[in-house]
Amino acid sequence: MTDLDFRQGGPPANGPQTTNLADILERVLDKGIVIAGDIKIDLLDIELLTIRLRLFVASVDTAKKAGIDWWETDPALSSRASRNALEDENRRLRDRLQALEPATDEDRDPGPDRSAERNDRNDRKETGQR
Amino acid sequence: MTHRAHRDQAPDTGVTYVFAVCRGTRATRTADVSGLVGMPGGAAVRLLPSGPLTAVVQTVPAADFTDEVWQSRLSVPREIERYARAHHEVVSAAAAHGPAVPLPLATLYHDDDRARRALDEEAHRFHRVLKRIAHHAEWGVKVYEPATVPEEREPVTAGGGGREAPAAGAGLAYLNRRRGVQERRERRRERALSVAESVDAELRELAAASRRLRTHGAVPGGDGRVHVLNATYLVAEHRSEELDVLVRRLGERTGARIELTGPWVPYSFVGEV
After folding, report:
1. Closest-CA distance of chain A to residue B150, Å
2. Pair B228, B113 in one domain
């Protein structure tokens, strides 16, 4: 999480908005008095949903302005992008990076000797999840 | 993970969508809500009196408000935006004539009678919440650390598409650079978090209640600002000016950028009662 929290964004911001969608969503989606409705709508996994939306929401206005869709090529946001032309370069660097910087990802590297195995696992995870 | 939708509804029937619950005062009962758009595809937004309470409701097509439809809706950001904004607009309008308790997005009943019964059953809770939020508003406060200086920026690892593979040694240089970035980043983060704590502490003094929401991290599409506090406060109406002054003063003192949003219908302060 730490790494994600401080990851850099894309193009410059266009300043605060009055009724920012992210602000609305974090209030509308999982707040309000708890009262059972007749029709069960599963809005669960609100945290994941809002994180995903925040990325989307914050990017749309600026991206529209700049006429680009950078989130499609940002490896943090798109699995397609992470498997593009940079894949080879990334794979080469990843082995050494894991050995030097074991705590970067959410779970810790068990040791440099197992880093190759771990990379494989992560690759699979990435592909499967997105 | 997904629940099966109720099957006991004919596909073309309407169901009752409840946006908010207000006191059944004269001002509320005579309020004109028919101009509100409400949920896409729904009938006119209307009032549904139930004893001393009045709900703001809308008949919506049952077929369009099943769990299955919502699940696919929730995977399309533009759709979520559309429905969330529609919900928010009605909730905000409902609060124009007195306190309004917002219900969560997609609270649905088979018909008006069922909605009324739910209101009656929970009447004591609604009254308690209405009392709590009367003459209060919710204000959101976000604190950002200043933008990252260029050398702290993480090297961009992707996005170029057709970049050539790096020369030998480029990888090691990259790793060394990254390690330094990481250390500076951690120090910066500690400073930022202590600013967040002191801002929150001072705002809590002024507020009737407060909640911490999840921070948004770095602002995507932003200028490198890092979001370190996302909090929301229930503030008495007569103290909103004081809040404004305090927020400005805190910004000057800490050097952090502080955003104040509101007044909101107290969404975040109706769920705990």
Report:
1. 11
2. no
